[in-house]
User: Fold this.
Amino acid sequence: MFFGEHEYKVDEKGRLPLPPKFRRQMKEGVMLIKGTEKCIAAYPIAEGKRLADSLAAQAVTPARLRKLNRAIFGSASDAVFDGQGRIVLSPSLRSYAEIGDTVIVVGVNSYVELWNKELWEKEVAEDEKQASEIIENFGAQL
Assistant:
């Protein structure tokens, strides 16, 4: 399980360190894809495979499934950690997520999100407005 928020710097080669506790869970590598809210989603390889299998099992037309697969996997990349615990973020994914030299790394249960700092601050503000309503709908208490 991934949780917590961490701020890191991206170097001039697009390399980003991830927290050691995250790296331990991603030791086989990472699948990087475009996140739905203008971030980069980073999945451990096994979780990325489960995502692919889940999409393939959905009851959608073949044409819609192809479009969805293109949208998700067409710009995806894989990464492995170097000796200093860094992965390389592709220029296209960095551009999509508007990531410069600072990244907010957020644990989101079964995967990790990589955010532009300003976009993350806006997302958190919006999420916090809606969180109590969402919790009420689940009938859960925190």
Summary: The longest helix spans residues 117-138. Strands lie at 2-9, 15-17, 30-34, 40-44, 77-79, 86-88, 102-109, 111-116. The first strand starts at residue 2 and ends at 9.
